[in-house]
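Deliverable D2.4 — example input (structure tokens):
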């Protein structure tokens, strides 16, 4: 008999070893195995902008909103005394609002009149400079915003209008120095800056893509960009511009023309924007930053209108992520 021939005993031994190594079909681990549903995708948060003119009390906002944006100057008032700030902070917190994560119009209290600008227009860039005051404003502002839990400070692009006759390159340098200073002042408080391009060719960064390029010149993780649907419409920009550099979109504003979302004909535009935000994995705030009007023809009921707007946006968001 050849030495290479396998005996019946060896064959049986190998079969038993193979069987022992195989998973038992009736094992608890296998019997409990089921198809798991896909993980639910995290969505963006629905935010409401507090009325900066004081026409409506924040206490009237309907429940259900997930984030709040506040205007800096009219509410926080960075140059007010510490005693005044304590009273203001206590009043804000008494409203029991959703988390306050964003502030808008960060520069409102320090923009200046400049030669070469139309009457009533002001800017941070131009021959009239006051960098020391700007640094003091930033220091006081970020410290107070951090006490409220703010994470994003919006810079409106029209606060960077280039005065007629003033060198655009110099204006850009001034803006770069200012925003870099803000980034450094914001860093200890874990606050980031969102540039808001406004489709105004007289400004330093008119387009969304130019805002991204400006932020890249700063080269700081604290400096990013905001997408505002009004200016996307005005500039005829493509929402897909946001997807070119997804990490640079830090905040979003939406509205109808002169009114809140839901009162107008922008549903399809909202859905296009929401689809882009979904596809890039955007999970931060989409804020209703708008004037509020009555949708019933009668006197404005702020609580009812904020509830109606919220439901409208919730439905669009659900359609975006689940449809």
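Example output (designed residues):
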């Amino acid at each position: 008999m050849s030495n290479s021939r396998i005996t019946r005993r060896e064959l049986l031994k190998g079969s038993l070893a193979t069987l022992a190594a195989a998973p038992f079909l009736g094992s608890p681990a296998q019997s409990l195995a089921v198809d798991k549903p896909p993980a639910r995708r995290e969505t963006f948060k629905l935010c409401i902008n507090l009325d900066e003119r004081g026409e409506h009390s924040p206490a009237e906002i309907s429940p259900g909103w997930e984030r709040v944006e506040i205007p800096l100057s009219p509410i926080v008032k960075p140059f007010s005394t510490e005693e005044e700030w304590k009273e203001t902070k206590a009043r804000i917190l008494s409203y029991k609002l959703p988390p306050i994560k964003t502030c808008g119009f960060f520069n409102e209290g320090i923009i200046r009149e400049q030669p070469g600008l139309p009457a009533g227009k002001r800017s941070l860039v131009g021959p009239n400079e006051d960098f020391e005051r700007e640094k003091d404003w930033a220091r006081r502002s970020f410290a107070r915003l951090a006490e409220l839990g703010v994470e994003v400070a919006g810079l409106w692009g029209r606060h960077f209008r280039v005065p007629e006759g003033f060198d655009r390159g110099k204006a850009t340098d001034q803006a770069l120095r200012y925003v870099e200073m803000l980034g450094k002042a914001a860093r200890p408080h874990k606050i980031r800056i969102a540039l808001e391009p406004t489709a105004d060719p007289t400004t330093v960064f008119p387009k969304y893509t130019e805002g991204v390029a400006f932020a890249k010149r700063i080269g700081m993780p604290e400096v990013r960009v905001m997408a505002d649907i009004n200016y996307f419409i005005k500039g005829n920009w493509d929402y897909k511009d946001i997807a070119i550099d997804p990490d640079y979109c830090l905040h979003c504003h939406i509205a109808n023309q002169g009114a809140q979302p839901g009162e107008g004909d922008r549903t399809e535009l909202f859905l296009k924007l929401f689809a882009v935000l979904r596809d890039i994995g955007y999970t931060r705030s989409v804020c209703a930053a708008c004037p509020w009007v009555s949708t019933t023809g009668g006197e404005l009921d702020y609580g009812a209108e904020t509830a109606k707007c919220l439901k409208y946006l919730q439905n669009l968001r659900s359609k975006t992520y689940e449809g």
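The chain has eleven helices and ten strands.
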